[in-house]
Design brief:
heterodimer, A: seven-stranded mixed β-sheet, two-stranded antiparallel sheet, 15% strand, globular, B: 418 residues, 15 helices
Chain lengths: 274, 418
């Protein structure tokens, strides 16, 4: 199966780990489309989200220490996935060099030149690991579609800060692998998986990091199943804009973290999807 | 366009130009205001280079309590020797005269602040304001339109807004003269109400009905509860029914109906606040649902665009590149009340973010009239109350912060209890 990866930056650990995992399973990406890493708006957004010290630390880890394998990962649960014979990959460029697939940088993944490049690769499937909100012309290119892993159970928790909203709303923490359509997290569901280790997480960061690693594993399972033709997607019920959640304010994040630390985790039955 | 429309439009343009010139002349009379004006313009020009930069979901360095103190300090500084609160501090002309309408509905904010902080100055200011308001009441029970000092004309809207303050002052002091003034005002409002539930004709702005007069309903619903007289509550519900007929399926609220002005977010906020507060007092779930729909549309816009426009066209189409900060604070109040009513944390989330943004825009330094002020527009040269710090902006932001404090404390307490 021909798989293309979309990512927000060559420094995205999640994108690196996803490419590595797929390659290990025999689905070496046909190519990857990435956005420029040093975009002014992205830098400003990250400064707003993380604060200046964290952005500087990130830049040190990723850019200044480029190529130094001892550089620390933001997500330690991806360390194992990123290891190779002589060390660890730290950028998608390194992964691509290791496995021999091309990377193309574009300003917008929906841009005509990006779509043209993807068409040339003729993918069966696109795995989305970050970037723009995808539009119909791009979504129509791959034979099977574009899949994404959402860090929450759909359709209950759509949108941003899903693990945190799950904790506050008493919804089990989990991930959903789904096709992307033109809405936000509204596409047909391939697999919903409750996360069994939520109670062991020490913080929201820890939970999110573990969920990302868990999600990568679930995507790889879904890709394998799609290749074998043993999985089908289920359209989402409750397709209502009222199910959309937005980035959570720091004060509410603290309340969610308190729930996590106090063990107030929902243990509802997971509906069968895929 | 007819000749009369063309004449009326050119009159409006000339009127605005004359007003702008007259305000600019204020700098000649007060040259000490030039430096603060230039500083504010430069700061806003720099800050709005990246329009989304203020959208924040992290806690700002300024605590909510400190911001509240700044806002109330602005209000206390704006209290004039007669006891009324100025409408605004203009960067061109300084303080305005006392403004009866705003003085009335600032009274509950001052009492709320005094109770939360134990600061007696705010309660004393509320009592002074109430005494001044009582002196303005007309024999009919009405209160006058406009700034103090002009030819007093009875105003339905201002009477309703002042009634808010009188009801609260009566609840705080239990004084019979305040109760009597409130009842007389309420009786006048009921007499002036049309059979369809609206207020139009004499005593109304531009002589026509407006949906933002739902604020008057809120005051009547408060009066009904305070003096235990159902006639005021029924009048409030009649207006509520009339306003609800103007809610479109898109959530848009029609009938703001201000000729010559866009639909500023401030007036949309008025409609929603008035309907929601009346709905809560009168237990009208249909009205709460209608407000929730509109408030949700604006919440999604705010979360998506990181910004609410200063004014909207029907169906919330907006392209105004300035913020109406008062309207933002009012939306924060609406979202907080909806969180209180529904338990939906997304309303709380949006208002926490909105409040963070607004707190950053309250000057912590500067002279009287500037420090603690809320400007009409952001940037300051936006179309809504340009180059002015306005008293009702401080009032609504203080209300939003007080409500945020109360609800977040309740949430923490209930989390601990569970």
């Amino acid at each position: 199966m021909r798989v293309v990866i979309l990512c927000s930056s060559i420094y995205s650990e999640t994108s690196c780990a996803m490419a590595m995992r797929l390659a290990q399973l025999g689905y070496v990406p046909t190519g990857a489309i990435t956005l420029p890493s040093l975009d002014l708006h992205t830098v400003l957004r990250k400064v707003g989200q993380w604060g200046v010290p964290e952005v500087v630390r990130y830049a040190q880890t990723k850019v200044i220490s480029r190529g130094r394998t001892e550089a620390q990962l933001r997500n330690p649960y991806l360390e194992q996935l990123l290891q190779h014979r002589t060390g660890s990959f730290r950028t998608l460029r390194e992964v691509a060099a290791g496995y021999g697939f091309p990377i193309v940088t574009c300003r917008d993944q929906n841009a005509p030149e990006s779509i043209e490049q993807i068409r040339e690769w003729s993918p069966d499937l696109i795995v989305f690991t970050g970037g723009n909100i995808l539009r119909k012309p791009l979504l129509q290119v791959p034979r099977l579609g574009v899949i994404n892993v959402h860090l929450g159970l759909l359709p209950e928790i759509r949108g941003m800060s899903s693990p945190e909203w799950s904790l506050l709303n008493g919804v089990p923490v989990g991930v959903t692998v789904h096709y992307i359509d033109e809405g936000i997290d509204t596409g047909p569901i391939l697999r919903r998986s409750e996360f069994p280790e939520a109670a062991q997480c020490s913080s929201l960061d820890d939970l999110r990091n573990r969920l990302i690693a868990f999600g990568i594993e679930k995507v790889s399972e879904v890709v394998t199943s799609l290749d074998r033709g043993t999985i089908s997607a289920t359209p989402q019920s409750e397709l209502d804009e009222d199910n959309q959640y937005f980035v959570m304010h720091e004060w509410l994040q603290a309340q969610a973290e308190r729930r996590l630390n106090e063990g107030h985790l929902a243990a509802a039955a997971v509906r069968a999807h895929g | 366009m007819s000749h009369s429309q063309a004449d009326s439009n050119s009159d409006a343009v000339l009127g605005r130009a004359a007003k702008a010139l007259s305000e600019a002349a204020g700098l000649v009379r007060g040259p000490q205001r030039i430096f603060p004006l230039v500083r504010r313009l430069a700061a806003d020009r720099l800050a709005t280079f990246e329009p989304r930069h203020l959208y924040s979901y992290t806690t700002t360095e300024r605590a909510t309590g400190d911001s509240l103190k700044l806002l109330v300090r602005w209000i206390l500084d704006a209290q004039r020797p007669d006891g009324g609160i100025a409408a605004y501090y203009s960067l061109l002309t300084g303080y305005s005269d006392s403004y009866p309408e705003v003085t009335g509905y600032i009274v509950p904010t001052l009492y709320d602040f005094a109770h939360v902080t134990g600061d007696n100055h705010a309660a004393v200011a509320a009592e002074r304001a109430t005494r001044w308001l009582l002196s303005l009441q007309m024999p009919s029970g009405a209160f006058p339109a406009g700034l103090h000092g002009g030819d007093p004309q009875p105003s339905v809207f201002n009477t309703g807004q002042i009634l808010q303050g009188l009801v609260r002052a009566y609840r705080e002091t239990n004084r019979s003269e305040i109760r009597d003034a409130a009842v007389t005002a309420g009786n006048w409002l009921v007499r002036m109400q049309q059979s369809d539930g609206s207020w139009s004709g004499p005593g109304t702005y531009q002589g026509v009905a407006h949906t933002y007069y739902s604020m008057v309903s809120w005051a009547l619903a408060e009066l009904s509860a305070a003096v235990d007289d159902e006639q005021y509550g029924l009048a409030a519900e009649r207006n509520l029914d009339w306003v609800l007929r103007h809610f479109a399926p898109s959530g848009w609220v029609d009938g703001i109906n201000l000729r010559g002005h866009p639909n500023y977010l401030h007036f949309i906020g008025y409609v929603l606040q008035g309907v929601l507060q009346s709905a809560i007092l009168r237990r009208r779930e249909d009205a709460t649902r209608a407000v929730a729909k509109s408030a949700w549309v604006l919440l999604r816009r705010f979360e998506r665009d990181k910004f609410l426009h200063g004014a909207y066209k029907p169906d919330f189409k907006g392209n105004r590149r300035y913020a109406c900060l008062t309207g933002n604070a009012q939306m924060s109040c609406v979202w907080l009340r909806l969180f209180q009513q529904t338990g939906d944390l997304r309303y709380l989330n949006a208002s926490l973010k909105m409040n963070e943004m607004l707190k950053q825009l309250v000057p912590a330094r500067g002279g009287k009239g500037i420090v603690g002020g809320v400007s009409g527009s952001y940037p300051a040269w936006g179309a809504y109350q340009p180059l002015r710090y306005i008293s009702w902006g401080c009032k609504f932001l203080a209300d939003a912060l007080l409500l945020e404090q109360a609800l977040t404390r309740q949430f923490e307490a209930s989390a601990c209890a569970s």
